[in-house]
Structures are given as structure tokens and as C-alpha cells.
Amino acid sequence: xxxxxxxxxxxxxxxxxxGNYLGALRNWVALQDEYDCIYxxxxxxxxxxxxxxxxxxADRHEAAKVLMAVGVDPERSLFYFQSQVPHHTELAWILxxxxxxxxxxxxxQWKDKADVAGSNLGLYSYPVLxxxxxxxxxxxxxPVGEDQKQHLELARDLAQRFNARFGDEFxxxxxxxxxxxARVMSLQDPASKMSKSDPDEGSRILVLxxxxxxxxxxxxxVTDSGRDVRYDWEQKPGISNLIEILSLFTGxxxxxxxxxxxxxxYGTFKDVVAEAVVEGLAPIRRAYRDLDDAEGARLMxxxxxxxxxxxxxxxxxxxxxxxxxx
Length: 326
Ligand code: TYM
What we know:
- The chain has helices at 18-31, 43-46, 53-70, 87-96, 101-105, 108-113, 121-136, 149-166, 211-219, 237-250, 254-261, 266-290, 293-322, and strands spanning 5-10, 36-41, 78-81, 141-143, 174-176.
- By secondary structure, the protein is mainly alpha-helical.
- The protein has two domains: 5-177 and 293-322, Rossmann fold, CATH 3.40.50.620; 201-288, Tyrosyl-Transfer RNA Synthetase, CATH 1.10.240.
- The mean pLDDT is 97.
- Residues 7-11, 19-20, 23-24, 42, 45, 130, 133-134, 142, 144-145, 147-148, 151, 182-184, 193-194 line the site of ligand 1.
């Protein structure tokens, strides 16, 4: 039996935080045991906002290193930089010709950016490139956080539209969104998601943060009125976010956390969450320290070659179907 193909990507902008980890990366790592996994540092997506070329080059490699420390294993998964495999953009162009502008106009991430200075065509067509990433390798499942759901819908639509027009070529990919952790919220504003681009560093915890930083960030996390530790996103979004984080790091279910810490008070509860996060992230920090940069770069180069070979076979089929192969 052939194994299911899984694809996912992460932008190498800034630092990788608890939202990325709990929403997506934990699944990336776990899925490697069973599936044919393809993971990609999506650097072409990242240049839709201005980057300093020198810093960006370093950020790309840094992101690859952090992903390896988290557990992405280049020996088991195909792992590479998107920009090094030109088939992504070739397929994106072809898919762009069957994408309605009406559908792109409805993308919420685009709507937030459409009227902002610096908005550009890359940001507008961003979801089409993402669809191409997924469909290029005929992925059947895509582990992502909640915020990517709408983009995944577009990938599914484009697969179906292409198949209807040119022949049954693409599987329709399913999102893999975790039941909990799919939307980790900002520690400073539990109404918005934890994000790499939030100017307030206190809003997030990075997977490489040292124990003191983690403790400090959690101590200062915004909580809600009242003092009982209760899972209730309506009334207590701040505490609910922390409960969910604790549950994911300890494997304890939410009712037992409520039973254990319901009366403990916010201060004590935050300390408990902090220690669980410190302990949970410690292996990642250790693995990161032990990784060798030159070896990491070599592995990425090998990944590029493998990805190009595999992508070429698939992409040739698309060219044939569309009438672009001679
Ligand atoms: P990116 O780089 O913003 O985020 C990487 C992954 O982390 C998830 N995530 C979160 N999950 C829970 N809570 C949060 N606060 C949180 N913030 C981020 C994201 O959902 C994502 O899974 N467009 C994608 C990258 C991409 C991609 C792809 C993903 C490009 N091509 C193809 C899947 C398949 C993005 O910007 O992710």
C-alpha cells in the first residue's frame, strides 16, 4: 500500500513561536512516522513583505535549523527551500489562470492587507502559490493551524477545477487541523492570534526562548476578571488560552486541569504553565544547540535536488494536460 502524501510549509519570517509549534509543527513531526511527508521553508511567500536580503538569507537557514530542532527529520521527510524548486512558481502561474479574482478578493488575510501601504500582487496571489505548493506533490493532507483553513479551501477548489477541465490529476487535499492548539492566542491580547509580526514581543513565546524569558512572558500574560481557572473562551479567553497550552504540554485533559487548579489563583496557575512550557521546549533548545550549520545547509541542498527531481516528474504531467509539453 502506498503511503499518503503530506505537505506543509512555514514562512521564514522572524521567529517560530508556540502557535506555530502547537498549531502545526507538532503534527508535522508526528506525521513523519506514518506518511510520506514533504516540508518546505516557503521563502517565496515571505518576500511578499520587504526583506533585507542579507538578513533574509540568514533567516531562511535559521528557520530550517529550528524546524530540524523541533523534529523535522530530513532523513525521513523531503525538506527544502521553496525558492530552490522553480516548479512551485510554474504551477502557480498555471493555477492562477483558473483562479477567479472574486475568490481572491474574498480571502480574509488579503482583505486585511489590501488597502495597506506596501500591498502588492504577490500578497494578492499568495494563496495561489500556496495551492501550487500543495498540489505540486499531489499532497492528500496538509497539517496547518486554523488561520490557513480558507487558503486550504482554495487549494481544494483549484484541484477540483483543474481536474474537471483537464483530467483527473490532483487529489483534493484535506486539512489536518488539531482539535486544540489550532489557534494559540496572543499573551497580551487574547482576542488576536499569536503572531510573528506582532510588534509586542511579550505577546508570544518562541520555541527557542530561554526559561527565564518564558517565565517572564507568562507572568505578564493578560488574564481575565475573576480568579477561578476555568475553560471558557467567552468569559475567560486569557485563561482558556493558558489552559489549552498546559493541556498540550502535559497531555492532561481540560476538565482535570480545571479540577486541579480551579481554585489555585491566576498567579500560581501561570507558574505551573510556565514550568510545563519550559520543560516541554527544553529538548528543542538542546537539539538546536547540537545542530551543525554546515551539515544543515548540506541537508537542505540534498533536499532541493530530491524535490526538483520529484517535482519535475509531476509537473511534466501538468504540462501535458494543459498542452504545454512538446
Ligand atoms: P506561517 O508561516 O504563518 O505559519 C506556519 C504554521 O503555523 C500555524 N500558525 C498557528 N497555529 C496556531 N496558532 C497560531 N497562533 C498560529 N500562527 C501560525 C499556521 O497555520 C501554519 O500552519 N501560508 C502559510 C505557509 C504556507 C503553507 C503552504 C502551509 C505556504 N505554502 C502550503 C501549508 C501548505 C503560512 O504563512 O504559515
